[in-house]
Batch of 4 targets.
Target 1
Amino acid sequence: MKLNLLLTLALPIVFYAQSNTSAGNTSDYPNAYSSGSANVHPFNNSSRMFRDWSVSVGGGGAFLQSADVNSFYDGKVNFGWNGYVSLDKQISHTFGMSLQYMMGKTNQKAMLPGALGVAAGVATAWTKFHQVSILGDVNFSNLLRRVDNHSPYRWALHGYGGVGFVGYNTLLLDNDMSRWNNSPRRIPIEIDQKLGLDTFFYQVGTGVKYNASKLIDVELRAMYYITGDDSFDGGGWTPVAIPPYNAITAGRSDNYFTVNLGLTFKLGKHDTHLSWYDPLQDVYGRTNALESTPNEFVVCEKGDNDNDGVCDDWDRQLDTPAGARVDGAGVALDMDLDGVIDLYDKCVTVPGPVENNGCPTTSSPVVTQNSTSAIDEVNKFFEGIEFELNSDKIRTKSFDKLNQAAEVIKSLDANSKFLVIGATDTRGSADLNQKLSQRRADAVVNYLVGKGVNSSVLTAEGRGKTDLKYPECDPATKCPEWKNEANRRVYFAQK
């Protein structure tokens, strides 16, 4: 059965194995298997940056745990021993492989139930074993380590798994079953299993390594072995054998574990072994040459003398005043293009001369008793002012228009007086429309005053539905909706 399982594991490996001859001759660079760069070299021993071979030795205790005759009997532990040696190859900073040889001995005891147990007494057994295995090694500390963790890296948690072959010789003695011809002498019941293809086992385990120096690691390791064999403990070949030790428990696999202290000798000339080498740490500058060349990347070679965020290399205005907003070329912004930058412009959205801080002068159209040009100018901005439905709350989208109107009004003759008139359409009662139009006119006046317009210049007047832009829209059903919207308005007039 175990031989069939072994073949099941081995056949996919043989089937999918590929010859490396398909790669062709890669001695010439660049080629189809390189990046195309001219600076490409074969990966050989001289190009390595780390050690990746090692030899490990160790030893410790061995204990039969899941067996009819085991190392834990009557509350006591029957200690065994083991020793191992392995040749280790680190394939990446997170994974390695080992070829390992181990030998050892387990000591175990058991007692048969009932009358047989009384006659035989406590049986003692010992198993001498030797095994060859392939072991995979996962470095969990490197696998899970954060690349921004720059703490000293001396401890590592490892996980192991693999398969192997075990040969063993087991002897069992009791007071009855192993007696020869009823004489006082006892003949050991012996099981001699040669190492072969049908003796393979599985193993899993974990270990903690300490990087003692660039040459030596110290490791505490625990491994668990699943033999799939019910005779490793000396209980016999089958549950019905004589003596019937295999009938003590229902298990059909004698499993054991080892606890070892070992040393790993790292081979090679480099300072660091690959199991302690995290390439991502180098990317972040922990151990590579980037640490010795700080400030290698310079953003502004000539600096930024005016501190506007644009390097002098491509700054078209090298003396931008502190606090001025600039464009991508380092030129101070001038939104209304009047020659006064926004930092100093008191009328940012309205052009004006430099001598008047960027605001229009009084030579602009001034409202007098005989002039309506300024009123027309303001009404261009008032047109389309929108309010919330049946409310005096101005919609946010109308703020820009009122801001521009405020700038124009502030530039007019301070002695002029103006009306801000509110009107509605013919829907609803006259009293309701009168009050709503007055509140809307008041809201516009308050907004303009908040933007710097002198309150003495403006007077709010609500006219309800008595001031229709389209008088024919009475009742409102006689007109299309756009005319009714035009009747619901606030506009500017001379007082």
Note: The two ends are 111 Å apart (CA to CA).
Target 2
Amino acid sequence: MNPIERALRAVDRTQQRHRPLAAVFGVIKKYGDDRGGLLAALITYYGFVSLIPLLLLLSTVLGFVLHGHPEAQESVLNSALADFPIIGDQLRENVHSVQGSGLALVIGILGLLYGALGIAQVMQHAMAEVWNVPGVRRPGYWPRLARCLALFLALGLGLVVTTAAAALVSTTLGGTLARIGGLLLSAVLNSALFVACLRILTPKEVHTRRLVPGSLVAGPLFTVLQAFGAALVAHQLRHASAVYGFFATVIGLLSWLYLASQITVYAAETNVVLARRLWPRSLLQPPLTGPDREVLALLARQEERRPEQHVDVAFDPPESASAPEPEGPEPDDRK
């Protein structure tokens, strides 16, 4: 055993003996097993695809509403739209030149429908992957479409509630106290919204209480991302915007969306690991721990695509894990 492997084995033994460390490592390990980065990238792509038509639709509607009404333009500049990452700066600079267009309105609606349905479908796929639901047990097109509509309704109601709560806090309190109270209230509401959205996206056999731990983590993190993520991205792109213009805005939007997607996937992975007690996981193999074997078996069984297809998983004993495989029939003849 070389010094590097010896050190890694020592770290592995330490994290397996301490439950908090083992649980955190279990979440990270499960994220890698499920290709969480790829799932987050898919969510980011469809989020961006749906966001661009939304901005086109928003600018078109604002063009019809704000034309010739400077008071309404000032109200938009003071609303929550101006605080949206990256887009807020563009809105402040160009609100007086926004104009409505019937063609842009039609294109925006069709593009928003395509992108919104895409992100809802991808998020359902991500939750099924995270919970290792076999393909044969995943819902068909029409049930998925119904879940998409339910997700849009939940997000719309959540946006209305959070906006009203923020307005109430700002009118009741003032100064730093209002800012702190608004962040705390936003964290609570975001956590509740995460529970509602995960309930819609997650397979029915998963009990709602198993969706709470990850939501309690994701809600505050998403609040921090809303409050400080926009400022951080804007700071990083301050000089890039002068050189690359709109391309820097696109990069900033993608970065913000990818962070939000990663929070969502990690929240779901946290729920799975805690619900199934998938820890401790081994950093180096062999040997495999019990949770290691369970995750590998679940990954294999989720590939079932037909009712008549059954996937069975078996593991060699630890002492023979490194021994050569015995001679047997060709792979095509195995059961």
Note: Residues 35-276 form one domain.
Target 3
Amino acid sequence: MRSLKRYLILILIFLFILVIAGCGAPSTGGQPTTKKITIEGYDEPMIGFATIGQGTTGGAGGEVVVVHDYFEFFDAVYHADDTPRVVLVDGTITYTPSYYLIDPKYLNTINIASNKTILGLGDGATISGISIRIGRQGDPEKNIVIRNITFENAPDDNISIWWGSSNIWIDHCTFKSAVDSNVDITRQGNYVTLSWNRFENVGAKGVSIVGSDDKLSDDADYLRVTYHHNFFNGTAGRNPRMRYGIVHIFNNYYTDVQLGPNGTCAVRALVEYNYFERVQIPASGTYNSPPGFIVFSKEDPENGDTNIYIESGTPQKNLPTLDQLTDGINYDFRDRADEWLNISNWIPYNYSPEDPINLPSVILEKAGAGKIIVKYE
């Protein structure tokens, strides 16, 4: 009995010491210890076609991964893993052919999986010598956000969105040289927004195509793309080049470009509130293909023009007509005339275009990588 009492007394003394020690421990004040992502600078909300469909949230709510080299980046975004994830790119991600010798899957083209956000840390990161592909034949991807990255020296397109992939937002990026285009949306890619990007020194083939072939008339129920607040500076072409689908081009700044937005194959393109400076042909509805529909005012498509032209040529409007809903070979949309000819229904989302007179200063100040600052602390 005495031994039991002595044992209990020792336990009580030990517990008392623990309580005293706990009282003397420093308090955390209830502050969380996990890191958070914050974005400063010219952070703008997503608008445009990327907000339609299932919406675009990228990897929001998923794990956060910081990557520093090709292998870490590959593992974080590869197409076989649709887990929601925010991938923070720190520094420059580049490719060398020796990676293929390590494993044949390590190519200079990386297929991005669904539900990913790719952000450049700090004032921006660089992806060099790598083509980003979103979607493969029979394997579409969806819900991807790419922001604050500089892309350069891609062996094909800098970014390809195709094979039914949808809900993609590309924002505050800078695009430089590529063997082909910078951002192509083809093969039924859908619900895409490109905003606040800079396209400069992009190479011989230009910026962006929407729809890749006159014969792919099935694309007409897809290819919904918005371009707003982008800077097209001395770009070779494809600003963009469009077929089928619906394309909304507003509040962009074009300088020293031969041909601005060009649409064929019954594309429905609303080109409004842009600033064209030294552009030989600001917009056109023909280009060695059946015509597309190009209008410059949603409110007054027949006579209105909301764009500004400085030292530029005459834009070529092409209003929708019943006769042009078929080319007699590849497509015939005359049975859908109510849908095609009603311009007021082309754009299904809310937006508030700003006065284009302000665009040169606004876009030069805010567009491109480094104009938002991404912190993780």
Note: Helices lie at 2-23, 70-77, 98-102, 337-341, 359-366.
Target 4
Amino acid sequence: MALTLHPHYSRPRKRFGAALDNLMPGRMIFIIGPTGVGKTTLRRSVMREVYGHPKHWPKGKIPAIECSARLPSESYFSSFSLAKSLLKQLRVPTLRWFEDNGKSTLPADVLKGLEAAGDWWGAREGRKLTESDTWDCVEQMLRARACGVISIDQANSFLKNRANKRPTDHTLHLMAFAEEANISFIMTGVPEVVRMWSIHSELRRRVDVIWVPPYSERRPEDRQAFATLIRSRASHYPNCDVRALLRYDAEVLAATGGVIGELDKLLERASALALEEGGGAINWSRVERSIYSQNDLETMWNDIHMFEEAMAAGSVSARSSQIKEFWE
């Protein structure tokens, strides 16, 4: 999915690029936004710009790897499983962050060159490793690959823990590991992921947060940008009545929360409905009948409100009044 940029996307993109250029070992960058807002697309596009094409990397070296912390149904997060996933990416990297629309852009000779450090693992592959051993192997492979950044998608999976584990336990472990291995982490997730650091002062000081907002009626400048988005996404459907969508832009925003991914899904459902009804245009009637149920709309908007509350600046007025009293 190509990311349609407007000021509220270009600014977080620039902030992320600057943070990546000046990333210090042991720190974490969190990219946070509602599901479907374009966080992964934004992150991958900046990583491609910062790290350049793999054909220019030294043989067998990888500046960054990417993996997902997505959990199977009814599962708890496991740092052991994460370590295994990282080890797999370091040995045979997929480099999905360098692919465009799911299609590999890497020549065969580049892919072969990336296997150069895999021999290091060969002598250990048959061993049954403990969790500690596996993390040690990850550290050694990071050094062998000259890899300085680990990007983890679906970081909110860290929040699903057994009773004796807290999200901050995992964050502290990763920060300690990052310092030891001389690397940094990029974590991508939905707003609730702030629980990974919000209750721990040391973590708050070592976390950089990039907020990726949806389009919003609260920002008047977003209306024209949202209209541009509608035109862009509707252009994928030759039979779509774009003028009708623009005429009902407020309804489209209400139906999608201003989230790119939700707009795409709405158009997909309207297109399927048009086919079911014998073809014809994706008109407003079909779009309207493709809108989520009331319960689903409320769930979507609750997620967006959670994001807005997490992103909003805190108030220091009460505390500053107390400080002034003491200073006076």
Note: The first helix runs from residue 7 to 21.
